[in-house]
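Dear colleague,

As promised, here are the two records you asked about, laid out in our usual form so they can be pasted straight into your sheet.

NAME FIELD: protein one
SEQUENCE, THEN STRUCTURE:
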Amino acid sequence: MGKNALSEIKLTLEGYIGQKIRLKANSGRRKTIERTGILEETYPSVFVVKLDEDQHAFNRVSYSYADVLTESVELTVFNSENEQVPVKYVKTPQ
């Protein structure tokens, strides 16, 4: 399940490269960080988000697909009509 689930998340995110994305990351001790930016690139183990320049002290952040799987990072993609599309792994019944 683990390897296949991570591959599915990666493939899903590849379809959203170049689109606006909002991420909500759990940074421990009941702290949650919200950031917005553009999904820039996907790599074998991580994906990179280029952050909006005005809002953040640094340019890019990267997270692993396992972060999405374990729900320590929640992703929301904005499609061309500016509608929000949540990205999460949903186990399909076999």
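NAME FIELD: protein two
SEQUENCE, THEN STRUCTURE:
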Amino acid sequence: MIIQTINLTKRYGKLIALNNLHLNIEEGECFGYIGPNGAGKTTTIRILSTLLQPTWGEARVCGHVVGYESRKIRPLIGYVPDFFGAYEDMVVQEYLEFFAAAYNINGKQRTQIVGDVLELTDLSYKADALVDSLSRGMKQRLSIARVLLHDPKVLFLDEPASGLDPRARIEIRALLKELHRMGKTILISSHILPELADLCTSIGILERGELIYQGSVSEALRRARVGTVVHVCTPDDLERTRQVLDTLPGVESAQVRDQMVVLTLETDTEDFSFIAQAMIANNLRIHEIRQEDINLETAFMRLTKGIVQ
């Protein structure tokens, strides 16, 4: 287990930011950490990054205990916070060389590594640009380039796509997929839930300092499914269609919504042919019959209660 927490708790006076957190992340995973504002995501990441001491409990990264072996952990991790501290008078190349020097990377090796991370993050053409002149998306990529200089095994990213435009988010996602393909273990917190579903191998849902779910995205979607919802589109009278379908065995409810009839069927219903048969028997035309998709955003809303600290 490359990341593990046992009864991890953080208190700020009477406020409990984390409450007996048990988190287990395998090597090579891309783990999505989601939850409402104030749930404790940033607190968790700061503890794992050795920047914050827990009140009690234990956190281990790469087999080393946070607090007791923090000096052994730091060379193995890279931490990207949700804000970028810019050095206004530095150009991109100087910025990266400065941090490479902090890791005792010198001479030709430093030049080679800085060039490699610039290429990986697609920033080579900005090597001579002032850091403060970069867009927010480029600054986020530069921040990721900075933490890759010492080739860490684990990456902690706190809301890396926050405030980015759609193109910048796509570029960041592509970069993270490449880092995951390279074997990096990634823990990423984000509010852009559909992108996590596409990126992550597993997720954890945190609410009010407590982990209420950890596992695969598919299992989260399965747990969030309440009945089977089917959308029926017809050019005929919607109210008449609703009345016909509402009487069918296996239909729990039928409603007219957004120019279609929305049916809630008994849980785990897989064969919808009886809907088409009933419509044909009642001379109702069919444009479309489809099952409603459950996405990660829907699952999050159904699995959480909306409680914040």
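A couple of things worth noting about protein two: The domain at 3-223 is CATH 3.40.50.300 (Rossmann fold). Residues 197 and 296 are 6 Å apart (CA to CA).

Best,
R.
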